[in-house]
């Protein structure tokens, strides 16, 4: 709802935990300008810039336990297989949208849990909307709301549902009337 009620040519979605620093907004904005054709920004050009922690993956594997690393790699495989092939880190909660794509995509999202980011990228790929990934600084914040096994099972289920329901037409990407 926050995205749909926001104003401005660009809309930044940021997780409330502060794991990604707002100083990195400038990097996303620069990539958005490159993607959308430069200054002045054409807010009607649909584009999404996704903050990414993918460059930190090797380091995070060294820090995580073996079961968590296996679950992370399994999740990445499911994302690639069923939903999003252009973005390595769909779950970083720092994404920049042009007004036009935010107005088009947020009203048609069905997933309201952790995997909504994946549905968002899935739809962008389906519509051939440019989606670019930009490396950001990221800090692990204590008190995560993710329960490792249960949350990953929910996300895995949601990934399969995204693919299945759009493929057979249960869900559509048509704008609500």
UniProtKB/TrEMBL annotation:
Q: Which domain of life is it from?
A: Eukaryota
Query: Which InterPro entries does the protein's record reference?
Result: Nucleotide-diphossugar_trans (IPR029044)
What name has this protein been given in UniProt? Dolichyl-phosphate beta-glucosyltransferase
Organism, scientific name? Caenorhabditis elegans
Taxon lineage: Eukaryota, Metazoa, Ecdysozoa, Nematoda, Chromadorea
**Gene this chain is encoded by:** algn-5
């Amino acid at each position: 709802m926050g995205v749909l009620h926001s104003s401005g040519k660009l809309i930044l979605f940021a997780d409330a935990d502060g794991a990604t620093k707002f100083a990195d907004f400038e990097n996303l904005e620069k990539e958005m300008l490159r993607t959308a054709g430069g200054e002045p920004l054409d807010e009607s050009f649909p584009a999404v810039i996704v903050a990414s922690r993918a460059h930190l993956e090797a380091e995070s594997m060294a820090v995580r336990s073996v079961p968590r690393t296996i679950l992370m790699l399994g999740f990445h495989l499911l994302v690639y297989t069923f939903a999003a092939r252009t973005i390595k880190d769909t779950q970083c909660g720092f994404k920049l949208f042009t007004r036009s794509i935010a107005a088009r995509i947020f009203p048609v999202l069905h997933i309201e849990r952790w995997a909504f980011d994946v549905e968002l990228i899935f739809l962008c790929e389906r519509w051939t909307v440019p989606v670019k990934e930009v490396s950001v600084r990221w800090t692990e914040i204590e008190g995560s709301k993710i329960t490792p096994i249960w949350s990953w099972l929910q996300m895995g289920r949601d990934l399969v549902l995204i693919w299945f329901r759009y493929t057979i037409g249960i869900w559509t990407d048509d704008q609500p009337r």
